[in-house]
Specification:
The structure holds two protein chains of two kinds. Chain A is 33% helix and 14% strand. Chain A is α/β, with parallel strands linked by helices. In chain A, the strands form six sheets. In chain A, strands 2-1-3-4-5-6 form a six-stranded mixed β-sheet, with helices on one face. Chain B is an alpha+beta fold. Helices cover 23% and strands 39% of the residues of chain B. Chain B has helices at 19-32, 76-86, 106-109, 125-137, 185-191; strands spanning 2-10, 49-51, 60-70, 91-99, 110-120, 142-145, 148-151, 156-165, 168-178, 181-182, 199-208. In chain B, strand 8 and strand 9 form a beta hairpin. Chain B starts with a strand and ends in a 9-residue tail after the last strand. The model of chain B has no long low-confidence stretch (mean pLDDT 94). The chains are: A alpha/beta, B alpha+beta. The interface between A and B is medium-sized, with 28 and 32 residues.
């Protein structure tokens, strides 16, 4: 069913920010529906305002639409007022390009960058008029697939998704479409069997889970001979060319700027960092390719800001040249640069100078912890003095605001660490005041450490609620005063996130029950419904079991069947080293043997920082 | 430097963008069209452009006015062609003309705006006609908007029933659109007891000070 603009206009007359639901962006691709055999709807389970700047979706949109017999359209999670309007009108959720109902597509592909979006997936499936559970859908329904960083532990949503694409999606999505094409006239089981043969694809229906009496996992085992175990994530050895025709929103969104991925992966090895573990090895995009992509993107967009995306932008080999080149392109009109995830230790005076020549919104650094001891435990060793040097240089260059990110609840944290956060913040403010007086501003964001799967902290316990509250309270109390702004998040939400990210398949029932009780947009303070979740957790061992329990070395983990290429024994050693306060150097200096170059030995290229798998010492 | 005045139409889906959102759309479209706008100086330079009157979200428009200041003078017809190729669907440039650099700012020149409002209503046209007459006969129409009391009556410069059909009537309105004295079509509908009906508003025309009052139909 295709909705008419007339129908859409009636829906939107009482909805906030209707521009979210009509598409029409410059560079949006509208292919001929009837003439294109395979139709994919890329679904992002968060608001348009956020989903529009999701790089993964942008990449897949362009790859799929580049295939002759495939069209890709988009849909984002409707805000609850729009969901209500759709239900009241009896109309289904529809795509933004041609306003087709989601049920009309062959494939619906969800992007799941974070776990807190799970209830929105159910909301969108329901608004699409589709059965929520994979087992209740058949070949008459679209195939529902998912990818993104949350899917490295797919189990909590395994019941709702037909197949997961784990890891880099650029090549895998083409394989998925091809497999679908060859089996589209067969039944769902045959379709899934074809998908399960693709590298990086996990079909949860083909695996059975058993639990022990103490509620821990006994095993996950395939129930078909052709289902692989483990499922190794997909890796593109060299980054494919980036998309250069960005979709330009007609309404204001959260991050509205050109995005160019300059590298994927990270060589630093921060022990809390999920992305840093699951995207190894580092793959840099050549400077010439980045510059060409930047010029094309600017010509196709007219953007006034460029974000160079990476897990650690200042570590990019050619960062200086890149910033310089951007400065030269500011001759016609002012261009600003955004460098997310700047590392203090690779930040330089030259970089600050180059950046401050253009417009810049401000700098953010993440020391994460207050003391050098705790920073060593998380393997993010930055001397406090260096932090202050960088702050001083930035204030002297005219920047008045610095943003600092810290975490509380890290394993091994003591009151001394909290005091050190307070001291560091005041010391940074003092640097600012020396230059700008009372106009210097330090914004401090305090988040709760959440142990993530596939990291050295996957065995760690989330700190108890009471402890987090007490620590947040102390920081809030002590970090008061002019020139300071402190933000933090709801510890219960962190607990939910911790349970969902390390949960097992039994959480599917919890997510569904929470959604039935009205949970959605859980990451949004105004919608987070703690009561709905507390009631729903009656269906499982409970959030503390998943979130707040330290795991033993021999415990089977619900994501053990997903192989990211980094050895579990390496992660365990990192966990032990963390407790001993031992650090690892940047792996560009020395290979520490995480195993990724061996796991993906057949894909190894000289562009990786890793030693060749054929040589000794890999 | 050159000052150009654009006359443009707003239609689906761009009528769902706010005036502020649309400013960004214009800004980027001019860049894609290869035009160089004049920028303000300072820490956050802004391109020099000015809309005559902010068009509310959800309103379509036939002839909005926007001034652009170009760093390099260009042929207005070429500007129109280049912009037309760069704009998203729902935003159409109908005319481009050069205006004097020292002409007063557009917002200061706007006096009133003419709207056509199509209302789907069960209220019979005869009844609407009666209500129109009553409303126009009133000396004052005290109302509240966002908690502030005001008189709607002096803001209505013209109001008539333009057409009637099955379940739908079309009203035309000329409402004051000066700074601090702007009549809103929804307020008029509400005063007519039609505030809950589904309606489509189109701003047909912005009336500048240079036009004599009563030049409408």
């Amino acid at each position: 069913m295709q909705l008419s603009t007339e129908q859409i206009e009636r829906l939107l007359c009482r909805v906030q920010r209707p521009g979210r639901y009509v598409g029409g962006e410059v560079n949006a691709i509208r292919k001929d529906w009837d003439a294109t055999p395979i139709r994919v709807c890329l679904a992002f389970p968060d608001l348009y305002d956020l989903g529009m700047s999701n790089l993964g979706l942008a990449i897949l949109y362009h790859i799929l639409n580049g295939l002759e017999d495939v069209l890709a359209e988009r849909v984002y999670a409707p805000w609850p007022d729009m969901a209500m309007a759709l239900r009241q009108a009896g109309l289904p959720l529809y795509s933004l390009e041609t306003y087709h109902a989601l049920a009309d597509f062959d494939i619906i592909g969800f992007g799941l960058p974070y776990e807190i979006l799970y209830t929105n997936v159910l909301e969108m499936l329901d608004l699409a008029g589709l059965p929520l559970c994979s087992a209740d859908r058949d070949a008459r329904h679209p195939l529902v697939i998912a990818g993104g960083h949350a899917t490295f532990n797919p189990e909590p949503v395994a019941g709702f998704i037909d197949a997961f694409v784990i890891g880099d999606g650029e090549e895998a999505i083409v394989d998925v479409v091809t497999a679908y094409k060859t089996t589209r006239d067969q039944d769902r089981l045959a379709q899934l069997a074809a998908l399960a043969q693709i590298d990086g694809v996990y079909v949860p229906r083909f695996y059975d889970v058993a639990y022990r009496d103490d509620d821990t996992l006994a095993r996950i085992a395939p129930n078909r001979p052709d289902a692989p175990l483990p499922i190794r994530r997909r890796l593109v050895p060299t980054l494919p060319p980036p998309p250069t025709r960005p979709l330009l929103p007609n309404i204001t969104i959260t991050h509205d700027r050109a995005m160019i991925e300059i590298q994927r992966g990270c060589t630093r090895g921060c022990r809390f960092c999920h992305a840093g573990m699951v995207t190894r090895p580092l793959r840099e995009r050549p400077l010439a390719e980045v510059l060409a992509a930047m010029d094309e993107t600017l010509a196709h967009s007219g953007y006034e800001e460029v974000a160079f995306l990476s897990l650690s932008s200042a570590d990019y080999s050619h960062i200086g040249e890149l910033v310089e080149a951007l400065g030269q392109r500011s001759a016609d009109y002012p261009l600003s640069i955004s460098l997310p995830s700047l590392r203090i230790e690779s930040f330089s005076v030259e970089l600050a100078d180059a950046v401050s020549r253009g417009r810049h919104s401000g700098f953010t650094f993440a020391p994460e912890a207050g003391t050098e001891r705790l920073r060593a435990a998380i393997n993010k060793p930055i001397p406090a003095g260096q932090m202050l040097d960088v702050a001083r240089q930035l204030f002297q260059r005219g920047f008045r605001t610095l943003k600092l990110y810290f975490m509380v609840g890290l394993p091994g944290e003591t009151m001394e660490d909290l005091q050190a956060i307070i001291d560091l913040v005041y010391a940074v403010r003092a640097e600012g005041r020396r230059v700008h007086g009372r106009q210097a501003q330090v914004n401090v964001s305090i988040s709760t450490f959440v142990p993530k799967p596939h990291t050295p902290f996957q065995w760690a316990a989330l700190a108890p609620l009471g402890e987090i509250r007490a620590k947040q309270g102390l920081l809030q109390e002590r970090l008061r005063g002019s020139g300071l702004k402190v933000s933090w998040n709801d510890p219960w939400l962190s607990r939910l996130e911790a349970a969902l990210c390390r949960g097992d398949r039994r959480l599917g029932a919890v997510i569904q029950r929470a959604w039935e009780r009205g949970a959605r947009f859980d990451g949004w303070e105004e919608w987070f419904d703690r009561g709905a979740w507390e009631a729903a957790f009656a269906l499982s061992p409970g959030p503390a079991f998943y979130a707040c329990r330290q795991r033993a070395r021999d415990e089977a983990l619900p994501w053990d069947h997903i192989d990211i290429g980094v050895r579990k024994s390496y992660l365990w050693q990192e966990w032990e080293w963390s407790q001993q306060g031992r650090t690892r150097s940047d792996c560009r200096q020395q290979c520490h043997g995480c195993g990724v170059n061996l796991a993906f030995g057949d894909l190894w290229t000289a562009g990786w920082p890793c030693p060749s798998p054929k040589k000794e010492g890999g | 430097m050159q000052r150009l005045r654009l006359t443009y139409a707003v239609d689906f889906p761009l009528h769902y963008a706010s005036a502020l959102d649309r400013a960004k759309v214009w800004e980027r479209a001019t860049r894609r069209a290869g035009l160089t706008l004049v920028y303000s100086s300072g820490f956050s330079p802004r391109p020099r452009m000015q809309d005559a009157a902010a068009l509310p979200v959800g309103f379509r428009a036939q002839a909005e006015l926007l001034d652009l200041w170009l760093a390099e003078p260009a042929d207005p017809a070429e500007v129109q062609a280049a912009l037309s190729a760069a704009l998203p669907a729902g935003l159409t440039v109908r005319q481009v003309e050069e205006v004097a650099l020292d002409e007063p700012a557009l917002p200061a020149q706007v006096r009133a705006a003419e709207y056509s409002v199509a209302v789907e209503t069960a209220t019979p046209a005869a009844e609407v006609r009666c209500r129109l007459a009553d409303l126009l006969a009133a000396e004052q129409l005290p109302r509240q908007r966002r908690g502030r009391p005001y008189d709607l009556r002096p803001l209505i410069e013209g109001l008539w029933l333009e057409s009637e059909g099955a379940g739908e009537i079309v009203l035309a309105m000329i409402l004051a659109a000066r700074e601090g004295a702007t009549g809103r079509p929804e307020e008029v509908l509400d005063a007519l007891g039609l505030g809950d009906d589904f309606c489509r508003v189109r701003r047909r025309h912005l009336i500048l000070e240079s036009e004599r009052p009563g030049e409408g139909p």
